[in-house]
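lol ok so funny story. i was supposed to be doing the assay writeup but got distracted and ended up predicting the structure for this chain instead. priorities right. anyway since i did it might as well share w the group, maybe its usefull for someone
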Amino acid sequence: MSRSDPQLGLAEATARAIADVLTGAGVPDVETGKPGIVEQGSNPLEILPMPAVISRVAYVGGVSGGNVFATTVKGANQIAAAMGAGNEPGDAELSDIAKSAFEEAANQMLSSAAGATAAVLGRAVEVGPPETMIVAEAPDVTDVAAPYMTRVSLTVAGETCLFVQLIPRVFVMRMSAAFQDTDAFAVDGDLDGPSLDSAWVHDTRLRLDAELGGARLTADEVLGLTDGAVVVLDRAVDDPIELFVNGTHYGFGRLLVDEDEWAVVIEQLTPQQAETDDDLAIEAEAVAVTAEGGTNDAADETEGSG
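and the output, tada:
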C-alpha cells in the first residue's frame, strides 16, 4: 500500500460528507470529482477561477493542518441562496448577508469533514472556528507542518468548488493503520518512508509538563487580580503533581530543588494512557518537524503551571 492510498481514501470520505451537507441544504446540482494528491510546493487553489470565497479551519489540540473549502463568488451565492439568504444565486458580488449565510454553510461542511476524518482515524478531531475571506488571487494556504495535501473538485450549479485537506504526517500514519485494519485497501508492500520503529521517530523530543494545580475564579476575581495577589491552588503542599507528555496524562511526581533548579521525582507512571508503543511513537511524530525527520530541540522542557 502506498502512502497516498490512505490520503485519497480520506479525501473521498470527507468530500462525500461535504456533498451531503450541500445536498441536504438544498444546493442544486452538486457533483463530486475524484480526489487527487497535490504536489508539495504547489498551490492547491491555483486552478480555481478568481475572485473566490475561501473558508478554512485549522486542527487544534497540538496538531497542524486543517481543511479549506473554496468556490467562486457565484458558487458562494448559490450556497447562500440555498441557506435562505434571500440573494440571487447568479449574483456576481457577495453581499454581507450572503457572506454570513455562506459562512454558516462552510462551518457545517468543514465540521462534517472533521467528523468524517475522525471516523477514519477512530479518534476525535477538533477544529477551530472557520475563517472566511474573499480574495482576488489564490492565497497560499499550505502549512509546512502538514506536508500532505489532497484536493477534490466539486461543482455547485455548474460553479467550481474545491475542498483541500492539509494533512499532518501523524494523520497519515494513523490512517495507514486504520485502513489496514479495515482492509479498505489491498496491502501490497510496506508504506513508503520510515516505519514507526525508525530511530528518527524514537529520537523525537517530547514535551514533559509538571502541573502544580489549578484554581477556578470568577471573571470579577480575575479582573481584580493585582501584583502580589495570592491565588490558592486546589492541591495541598504534600499532594503529588501531575505529569503530562505532549498534553497526555502520564503519571505523578513531586517537586524538589536540584542545584538551585526545580526538578521532578517521578513516583508513578501511567503509560497505559498512551495505549501502545505505536501510539506513543505517533504522538512523537506529531511534534516532529517535517523536514527530513528533524526535531523540536526545545520540546522537552519541564514546566510547572498554576
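The first helix runs from residue 4 to 24. The radius of gyration is 23 Å.
back to the writeup now i swear
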